[in-house]
Each structure stands twice: as C-alpha cells, then as structure tokens.
Amino acid sequence: MMLRSRGVIAAIITSTLYVAFFGLIEDLEFGLGAESIGFFNFVLPGFAVFLMVYQIQDITVAVGASFKARGILKRLAITPLSPARFIGVQTLTYVGLGVIASGLVLAVGGVVGGHVAMTTNLLWLVPLVAMVALTSIALAYLIAGLTPNPQTATNVGSTLSFLMFGFAGVMFPVAALPGLLPDIVPYVVPHAAVIEAIRGIVLSGDAITAYGRQVLIGIVWLAVALTIAPRAYRFTDDR
Amino acid sequence: MTAISGTLRLASASTRQLLRSSEVWATTFAFPGALLAMLWLFSELRFEFASQQVALIDFWVTGLGVLGVALGNGHAFLANISTWKAGGVLKRISLTPITAGQLIIAEVIPRAVLGMITIVAFLAVGNALGANIRMGTELVSVVPVMVIVTFTGLSVAFIIAGITKSPQNANAMDTAVSWPLYLVTGAMFPLAAFPAWLEQSAQYVPYTGLIATMRGVVLESRPLTDFGAELAIGVVWMTALLLVAGRTYRFVK
Amino acid sequence: MSSTNEPAVEVRDLVKVYPRPGGGTLRALDGVSFRVENGEFFGLLGPNGAGKTTALEIIEGIRKPTSGEVRVLGVDPRKDLDRVKRMIGVQLQAASYFSLLTIAEILDLFGSFYPTRRATTELLETVGLLDKADSYVRHLSGGQQRRFSVAAALVNDPQVIFLDEPTTGLDPQMRHSLWELLRRLNRDEGKTVVLTTHYMEEAELLADRVAIIDLGRIGSIDTPRALIAGLDGQGHIEFTTNIAVDTSELAALDGVTDAAARSNGGGSSLGPDTYQLTITDPSVAVTSLLGWSQGRGIEMRGLEVVPGTLEDVFLQLTGRELRE
Question: B146-163 pLDDT, tens per residue?
C-alpha cells in the first residue's frame, strides 16, 4: 500500500531536492552573539532527518485518521489482528524508507558542498534515524487516534511538525533560545536530543558514546510513544 | 442592479462563512501566532550574508508575513472552492443567474480584506515582539502591496481548484506549488546568499519583488517608488493569473 | 414571457454522445423527444444509466447536447440560458449547499439572484422546515435535506420545476411526505413539474403522464393507466398452497400466459412456495384457477389479483427489469 503511495515517493524526491537547493547557498551564516554558524552545515544533519520524517508523519496522520473515519478500523476489529500488530507492520516499511531517504539527503548534501565527516560513526545514523522515524510514526498514530476527524488530525500533525521544525534544532540552533530553554528543549521537544547527536556525528565525526544522554532521551520518547499509540489508536470506540 | 446586488449579497454570505470557518481562524490566527512566538523566542538569532546582518525576526516577519498571507489565505480558500466543485455546490449555483465572475469577485473581496487585516496585525505583533517594523505611514504603502499579494494567491487557488478533480488532488498540487515559493522568493532565506543567477532569475517569480518591497518599506522606510520594477512584475503576475483563473474555474464541465 | 400555448418543455431528437475511456462512443441519449404541457406533472421513468439525468441537465442548460432541440417555455437554453434560468427551478440529484450558512441564509442568498423571489419564511413553511431555519444543511436529516432542496428550487417562484430523483434513498415515510409536497406544488400552485425517477410507484402516483426511458431512448409516453392498459398481460395472480405444485400445470390454465414459483423457505406458515401467474384476463384466469384447485383438491391461501404496474410495462418494452 505504502510503496504504491505517490506521497512516499514524492517525499523522498522532495527531500533530496530541498537539500540540493540549500546547497546552492553560498554565503549565509547564523549570527548569535559574537558567534557565526555556517547555515548549510548547521541545517544539513537536521534536514537529513526531518525532511523525510515529517512527511512520513503527515502521511501517517492522514492515512490513520482516514482509516478511522472510513470505518476500516471497525472492519479490522472483527478480525484477529491487534492494533499493535497493525501499526507495527505499517510502520516497518516507513522506517526503512526514512533511513534510506536520510542517507540520500546526506549524500546529496555532501555532494553539493555540505560538510559530512566520513567516519564509521556515520553507521550509527541508521538506528538513530530509525528511532526518530519510529517515534514520529507512533506519534502520528497517537494523533490520529485521539482526534475526532481527519481534518483536525492533519492540523494537529502540522502543529507537531512545526514544533519539530522550529525547536528540535532542525532549522535553528537551540542555543539561541532564551533563558533555560536550551536546557529544557532536548527533553520536551520530540527528536531534539537525537538530532543533536546526529549533528555531532555528521559534522564532527563524534562517536555515539559522546551522546549517551541524548540517545537515552530518544529511547524514552520512543518507548512512551510506542506504549501510548496502540492504546490511542483503537479499532473500536469500545474501551 | 440585480448583478451588483447579487454580487454584494454573495460577498456578504462569503464574509459570514469566513468568520464561521475554523480553517480560516487557524490560518489567520493560530499559525501566524505560533510563528511569531517562535520568532520571538529566537530573537537573538540573525542572518549574516553578503556583508549584511538582518535579525531573523525582521527577515521572517516581513517575508513570511507576505507569503503566509498569500499562501495561507489561498490554501484555506482552495480547500473551500475545490470542495464546492467536487460536492456539487457549484453545479447548484450554475443553475441560478449568478455568473462565475460574480462568484469569484464575491469570494475574493472578503478574503482580500481579511488578508489586509492579517498582515497589518502580523506586522504589529511582530513589532511588539521585537522586530524593527516601522508602523507609521509605511502601513499605507503596505496596502497596495498586499492587494497584489492577496489577489495573486487567490487566483492561484482558483486555477488549482479548476484543474484538479478532487480536494485531495487540489491540496497536493497546492503544496507542490507553495513549498518552492518559500525557498525561492526570499521569504525565508536571503536571495543575496544564493548564486547570482538564482538571485536574478528569482526576481521574476511571483511574490519575490513584493516581499522585497515589503522589507524595504517597513524595515527601511523606503518609498514605494523605489520598487517600481518589483511592483510591475507583481501586477503582471496578478493580472495574468486572474485572467487564467476566470477561464479555468468553471461551474460545470 | 412565453405564450401560454407554448408547451412548458419541448425536446426534439435529443442526442448526447460521450467518448468512452478506452475508445469508441457512448450514446447516452439517442434521439429523445417529448413535450410537457403547462401545469402537467411529467415523469421520466427508467433505471440508473437510462439517460434521465443527462436529458434533464441538457434541458436545464448545464450540459450541451450533441444534437437536437430543446425549448423551455419557448426559449432555447443554448440561445438565452439566462432567461431560462430565471423561469425554472431545479432540484439536483446530488447537490450541496454552503456548509457554513443556515438554510434560511441560503434561501435568502439564492433569492437575491433573481428579480422576483418568494419569501424565505413562506418557502420554509411550504416544505415544513420553518423550525429549522437556523440550522445548517448538514444538521438536517436526509428527508429534510431533500425538502430543503425543493425549497431552494422554488426560491424564484418558477413556472417549471425539474426534480432529479428527489426521493432516492429516503425511507417510505419521508418519501410519502415529499410526494405530498410535490402534489401540492403541482395541483394547488399550478407548477409544471418534470420529475425523473426509477421508482415505479412514484411515477404512477404522481405523474399525469410518464415517459419510459432506457438506454437513451424513449420507449413509450402516456398516462400511467394507459401504459398499463396497453400491457399484453393484464397483471398477476399470487397465492400459496399447502403442497408443492408443478408450474407447467398452472401455465396451461385458461387466461394464464406464464407461471413461476418462489420458495418461502422451510418452516413457513404460508406453505412451501408462493406462485405467481401472469394473466391476460383476470376473470377468465381466476375462474380457471378455482376450477383447477377444486378438481385437484389443493388448498389455496392468500389469493390475490395484482394489477399490472409500470414495472411490467418497462419489462415488456425493454425486456429488462426496472430494478436491477
């Protein structure tokens, strides 16, 4: 079903095109106090994760909410299939696609001039991106399950994507936030901690062990999302 | 007289629907509000490019203010009119003496007014949150810019609704058209940071010149006359798209 | 304004051809001709895909014919569509209205499109929706939505009203309620009504004259009674028996042209089967059947003479059943 989805194919293509486009930027930096941060190198790791993942999330929200609204879930409720297994099977393909797409984006980013530290630590991106994708998909099912109709589901999903875009360190350095927010954001914004780890691995070639706390935060987010999603995305209203 | 009164009654009905629409409240208040909140939180950040520095909040309030109104307004409008086409509302209207032109005008007027209100409010709140927006006589110059922006955005919505078969296809096409605009119009990223060939060709993309005009007016208090070429390109786009919209958005096949 | 001698609707040799997706063409209408007199209630009866909606939409001016002529109150919709729109009211088979306007607001809005109009409260009262004036269309029941559609069709006080399958999908009670409304519009207000339907009872009960249409062609046009009277067979006899019977015996009886059995399922108090005899002459057939049952000692239950229906007319004309 998903592999036939034009949305998925479009998501992969547009992700790589966006990064190729950003690679055209010749002279742009973020200024923060006395510090300057090269724009493209900063955003490349975040985009490698975010560009595909938010689209997967949006597609899952839309499809999940639509299945619910159209009575497909009710039909599945009469079968022996459990919600957890249903979500799990749907999810695996998306996670795989997410990992592949992220790799593609990084590769394109490197080709168009972004800095990618070519070390074996890059292999850690596979489980990290998979974790982000899996968390996003679970959150998408959570949203689809808790919202009353597909339109509201899409709006809430877009809000979450916006939150990630702005505050997960995808687009802007979290360090630019005022007060205690830079310390709080990695815990409360989905994926913020993991993106920090990914940035360090991609730009500096850091080992995964340097990001134990961030990985742990990501695992907790994943565990919570995977626990709640099947409870929220029920086949029937009978609780 | 019947044509005018029919159009006015339609415009009045459109306004009523606009005010009752949750989609409109989301695109007019919720999303811009969230964006402003985010920019306020990142108010220490600036763009540095081509020996210039611009505060992120200044850059995005002006750029996304223009584009957000155009595309957000257009997107909500598109959802409406493509649903009308698919759901039989247009077919029903086609059986009355009302013409497609009257319907278009009646829908566009309240949306244009809403667009004006939105941009002024957006600029004002941005200013209150720390953006260096000039809120004096500069606002008068903003009006013609936003007229062009709004009519361009709504025309695109009519065209997309006219050529697509379902609200879902319309939404997909709208997304495909809108997203590149955020990138190549200078709304989010300074075109001066891109290669010269891109910077120059982007001037002919809808909204690019209008965004530059908006920035020049409200950030630097420059007069509209400094942006003759940009405004001319904007007017040409608006006119062409309006004409295509009138031909494309039919009541019935 | 047209002359009162002009028919309300006149259609001559109407043809509509569509290209098929895989190649070739589809003749949705194949030389349809009929006329509707002023003040008449005219029915177009046919199954789905017969061409009823296509014909109606061409008359209303929202679809162009491939060839043929149409006049509404003497006016050709292709030449003066605006004038036609002012004179007609239309209830579409599937129409939507603005979802964020109340039904009163929609009627006010639609009324403002015309030089003359009926008052919104009067319209809502006519269709029995005055208490729902402040409701959105989506909050009305199916039957109420249909009645609202009829109200919207009346907003300009039209001379001719076109209704495309107005009762499809409604339960019997709602259907009867809508029929009552349509009868009042025709008989009390003198409106000319052109209605398409695939419900035989609807055409029989409401229409002064019915045109049977199938596969884009008109089979016959006449009053329902005349159409039924023109049937080769004059109806059916139905009954059940205490034991199973060979239908060939029944088909051989005088006045009977055909006999069929329908199983009642095991354990029915009616007996094993219900028998349906197609008859040419009710009195001959009943006499013959009574004689047969007495001679064979077979007990008949629930004997019923069912007169011919438009469904029988349709079957005779087309060889197909009206309901698929």
Answer: 889 988 998 899 899 889
